[in-house]
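assembly run, all chains below
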Amino acid sequence: MSKVQVSTSINEETIEFLCEPEQTLLDVLRENLGKTGTKEGCATGDCGACSVLLNGRLVCSCLVLAVECQDAEVTTIEGIATDQGLHPIQQKFLEHAALQCGICTPGYIIATKALLEKIPNPDEQTIRYWLAGNLCRCTGYDKIVRAVQDVATELASEVRDASPEAQ
Amino acid sequence: MGSYAYVAPGTVAEAVAVLQDHASRNKRAQVLAGGTDVLVQMRTMDREPRTIVDIKTIEEMNRLDIGAEQTYIGAAVASAILNENDTLRGLFPGLLEAAELIGSTQIQGRASIGGNLCNASPAGDTIPALIVNAAVCVIAGPAGERELAAEDFVTGVGTNALAAGELLLGIRLDNPSAKTRDAYLRFIPRTEMDIAVAGCGLRLSFDDSGICTAARAAIGAVAPTVLLVPAAAEALVGSKVDDAALAAAGAACSAASSPITDKRGTADYRRKIVAVLCRRAGAIARDRALG
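ok done. output:
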């Protein structure tokens, strides 16, 4: 079967690619497009290492066919930092040493971004349930949870400072 | 060995035509909703190339209508969308807690109730909850639409009642009256993300004096298919759903089960735990209906 042409937006850039019908979004990101920040762990949706945002929703890119991304908006770890520097989530993961081998980290960063966009001030239980689909075999999770709590506090105070009442 | 193909029909009629065409040529086609089962199957136990028919591009498959009398959930509506809907949670708390139990946040963003039903696992969490709510499966096929009760949809382990060329469009539910509510509980060895060792859903209705006037109970992961247990309902109707009535309903669930022993639990354990789940879920449904 011939390859399929797909036009999609990845990190706000329009990208066209050719892929096999059975290739996953994860395969295409890594193998066709060279975006290797998204990691493959289990490839069966259990570990969350391949987490990306698809039309704003957190998904495992190993459970999405690349052909499904026609006209979609995909956000990968490569789209998180800006020219000004690391995203606050990335910065806090560094400060709290919330990573060791690093394979799970891109997935955690993406999942944390999705969490904080939906629930800006999550308690520990909410964080642990929300991130239960991301497995880390190094850290024991505690430092990850603390990094997420810290960045939530920081982003909340930024929002407070930026609000008209605070000025 | 053929090769994979992907089609994204724009309408239900196109989807049915693709499925029918494949069936008539003895070629394999598989419907794709959220893909949380299909893609895993493609990678592991079932690598045979086939045509993937993506139904998410069809507007009708994503329809979620909560009316005054009835609710309709399109077969491709993701669990996350259901769980974000407070009106739906008020009407069918048991169905939503069943949907919410399936997988991580990532899975929730894609997995659908329609897919859970079509996948036809004995342990599918939403299936008991659909059955106790007397859900009706709306099916499209070459001969038009037909309807089937949820308890008749799953025909065996991994098999369903869809004929060649047919497609599950969605689920229709009658909204419950004020003193009717559902509940679903399952047991897994940890708190998140596992497959049910046993599950039990109930929907209970009460009159103004707190007597149970109607009941439905269904058990999961303890038989080749999810089962409706009329004897459990009979044990509850006419009672105040007190401890004695719940114990009788639990015993009826145990008696109706025919579990296997596997790595998640022994048959004896499953038979016992399904009664516990029935008692607890029954108490939750009662408190919701009367609360």
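Chain A is about 35% helix and 15% strand.

Residues 4-79 of chain A form a domain with the Ubiquitin-like (UB roll) fold (CATH 3.10.20.30).

not gonna interpret more than that til we talk
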